[in-house]
Write a structure and sequence with these properties.
The protein is of the alpha+beta class. Strands 1-5-4 form a three-stranded mixed sheet. A two-stranded antiparallel sheet has the order 2-3. A two-stranded antiparallel sheet has the order 6-7. The chain is globular and about 75 Å long. The chain has two domains: 199 residues, no CATH class; 262 residues, no CATH class.
Length: 535
Amino acid sequence: MSVTWSDQNWTQDEWDWWYHVSQGSALESIIPYDWFVAMEKPSLSPRFAGDFIDQDYLGQFGFLADGSGDYYNPKYNPDNLPVGFSKADNYFDPVSGQTGSVIGFTCGACHTGQINYKGQGLRIEGGPNMIDVGKFKTATGVSLLLTDKLPWRFNRFANRVLGEDHTKEAKAELKERLDALIAEASRVKDETEQYYPVEEGFGRLDALDRIGNFVFGVEIDLDNFHAVDAPVNYPHLWTAPWFDWVQYNGSIMQPMTRNAGEAMGVFARVNFDPDNPRYPLYDSNVDVKNLHKIEELLAGDPLYNVLSGEPDTKMGLTEPKWPEELLGAIDQEKAAKGKILYENKCQSCHLAPIGSEAFLVEDNWVTLNDKYPNRKYLKVTMKNLYDIGTDPMVATNWLQRIVNLKHLASDYEPTKPNEPKEPFNYDGMVTAGFALPFTVDKVVQYQYDKLGLTPEQREEYNGFRPDLARGLLGYKARPLNGIWATAPFLHNGSVPNLYEMFPPSNGLKSSTSAVGNLIPSWLVLTPIQSKEVSS
């Protein structure tokens, strides 16, 4: 399939970098990078089964090919991995002390989309991907287990990792390390699989609960585990850096807290043990420098200033424009009727179209830091669960989740005059809305200290915003620019296409629904992203 790229204000070098830049993450079981590229597809056959990293094979789990045809950029991707995989160098495991280069996920794994239509792929930067993390994890585990148990597979694996002239001692050490990895993965699975009652499937992940389980559960105390039962659609990223609150439930304000928390959730290990002889408390693999660069690439200059025509400002990632040459021309008569419907039915929550005069009215914008009055942020509408009437699990899980920070509680210091130490009156038992920004800030500040950042640089890395989190029984109604390219719809990905989002009342042919009549016939065919397996 040939692939074209939508025009979203990024250069080819920028999206190539985005696909493979490390945020300091690994996989749930720490797999050395050279092991990952040496792995074979799962197979009992004594013959070579083919590379596990084969683009077509990993495409079965929703991962997108790096480029079009044979193209890929060896500058960022020397082993031709699919979009979303990175090589994290100088990685360390605080528990075992193991160091080296490991395979990890990038932001682009979940937030790069592709629409396939009539044999043509349209790449959507910052769009939702259709990966199935659970199936990928299972396949990875089976491949490693077969490599460990089948001598002919292990021999090939040792040759690829160590070279064909390796010693018996090196091979024995490799086998011992592989045995240890599998044993540890099996232990974690036995202890935690009860908390995963829902199969998330393609295009969905319970990100908040998974982040909480790894950071608060695996790394602090297994008693902090919570059921992973609220999967959501991977959100699209354009415009989001300029929202006053992010996440579907509007729970986080500061970009570094959101991004570093995500990196920790996708297995950037942190030392939370004050008695660890190898690493200081809060030392971690979180790459705050790359996370800042990623945010800058996505955000550009302040959206309000750019849209207001202020000189010398640059837009960040923009929404994809409708590709008429691929998906057909827009019916302008229907579009005009749709504009009226949007103004009457949708605009009160989702705001006026991006860039319009009504969008730029002062009431839509807020200043979050008095030191930077020219940096305005979009006030995204929050709607309560009762008004929306949709799946409440994401919001209720976050609001109700309690975390025991244990010994870390003693590190809390009030940040305001006369502020009591009340959050830790109960032996470190706090809400997730307190625990996440608290722990992430400790990790981030440690990294800032290692980099020697000035106070001014720290504010820049933090997006010039305070480190705030909250819990609301509601979801945000973000602007709908580029929404056509973000199927499936709603926060939990429960609606596959626009036709199902606005179903005509009496069927397609005899529809009396004004909205239904405005949906062009070719949009009834779901623009599902990624490979056919995604549907």
